[in-house]
Fold:
Amino acid sequence: MTQPLPLVRAVGAACLLMAHGAVLAQTATPDDADEMKEVIVTATRTAKAVDKIPGAVSVISQRELEAQYLVADDPSAALATYIPGYAPSRQKMSSAGESMRGRTTLILLDGVPQSNPLRAGMREGYFADTAIIERIEVINGASAIQGMGATGGIVNYITKTPKTPGTSVTVNARVASQFRHDNVDWKTGLTVTHKSGEFDLLAHGSVQRRGMGYDGRGRLLGIDVVQGDTMDAAGGDIFVKLGRNFGDQRLQLTVNRFKFEGDGDYRNVPAVFAQGIPTSSTEGTPPGMPARNDVKTASLDYRHADLFGGALSAQLFSQDFSSLYGATNTATFQDIRYAPIGTFYDQSEIVADKHGAKLTYVRPDLLLRGLEATAGVDFLRDRSRQQLAGTGRTWVPTLDFKSTAPFLQLEYEFGPVTVRGGLRHESADLRVATYTTLASYGNRLVQGGERSFSKSVKNLGAVWRFAPQWSAFASSAEGFGLPDVGLVLRGVNRPNQSVAQLFNLEPVVTRNNEVGVNWRGALGHVGASMYDSRSKLGTVLRINAQGIGVLDRVPTTVRGWEVAGELRASKTVSAFGSYAKTMGKTAATAGAPMDLALGARSQAPDKLVLGANWQPLAGTQLRLQATRLEDRDINIGRVVGTANLEEHFRGYTLADLAATFDTRYGKFGLAVENLTDRQYVGYYPQSANYKEATSYFAGRGRTFSASVTRTF
Structure:
């Protein structure tokens, strides 16, 4: 196994790669040099300029989000466009296969965890209306700074806050259509902001309704009635943020309630693989209740900007998550006590309730000038379960997880160099009551018990601002997570098992070593990085011949490189782009050679994004972008157990166009998604080694959208 470069050698190598650029940058003006420092990131637990963070960090601005959400009101599509290592959007409620750098991400809303690592049902991506998001901060690569689950990185959605004194009312509406039957998506919202003296308020309410979609050949897209779909669905959001400043102190309350639910007007029509016909839909009522997401998030934040020479921030939070899946007669749900085998329909529901607290204290110039200490502690209680809603049966028993995690980060800045390192100690307990598995697993009685986890994870990195506008970094950071505990426990099919003895519940610790360079100036910004991410005891979900997911604990390694940036040719024209190459490897079994490529559930294909912005008139913005996903053929002829690991993907290129216009009547937008009306089957449905006729989904054909925003 290749050993990672030591930190000092990695920094030196990165700087040598860009040394010629440093000479060119010597003529930069002071304003140019400050350009990079204006981009501030808070996902690191304290506000930091990006040129002082040792790692690959991205910030998706409100301007960029508005353009992308005009094309497609899809949170994961925005991440796939702006984050090089993020996998393509599924265009469904399910986010299965939407990984980052071959691993899972920790999703946050203003620092409140939205991910459900104990029972990851892949529905955590729909938790708030996109209209309340101001920006998205992304930390690429393993990180423990925000807690458990960030083995691939952190995605922190930051909500809007009033900035202008006075009261304003904003009305926004968006409509999209392909001009076909039952094919209108619409959303409208009302936002009220108020800022007076030390008090501010933002309140938002929205409703939306989504019709069906069509592929490039005019065929109805397949609806995923089981995992959940964004078609034939409706939802709403209520968001309130109240803030009050008391000199150097601030108290803020944030509450969000989001619900998104299928209408149940369409049934799934299976694909015909022999004729190359993807899954489609037809009018009709599927069995059971429609799939839905119901998410409530609340946080109370306190900040003291000048306490004993430092800054204190504290947060109390809660998140109640409920995700109902559609009904199915899968073999897993069959029980002769209810109906003849093969005829019984049931549907599952994941319920996860989180409560916790975060305490952070930042003290600059501790003991000596340039030394900053960040210390704190996180508390989390997560109670997750999965039940069968139709019969009340337990599929996954209640997982009662408690963790306490103190941490300490030290940062020392001397001249153009910043060195940052720290330690976080995770101490957690997982309690599970005695339960009985479903009949399909043999009605096995599993003795409950308690598992304790104690692990210290480290990070060390350095940034060298070796010339005006230029910086290089190297870092080594660990992330802490657990395997999908619910997936392990619900699949127990042997007698005399107990929670305390299940080896599969051992933690996942991932180390990410990375080196990179960044340039940011008046003409734009460019960043490039190379990384090596390893986990000695990782997790790989394999689908066997019966279509049942089996979680294997095997080592995994992901290597890759990324480059991204934006260049401004003039005040009115700019170009942006990114490229990501990801190479994930794993083993058939523990101790076997690392000669298997990670599949589509874990890894994205190589991806190229190119685009341009043009401002022909003041207040007018045109945007053209294209995404190319490269072909991928892996694991030819390889089988593990009854799971066929061979995957094939034929790549495709999609182009989008968007335009916005500022007028005295408001801001108007027009967009076209899939400009060329390309017919394609998505990356994950194409690649999945176990193909189901009910989930071989084509992507959306050409779609037109329009929006208007008016502030009073």
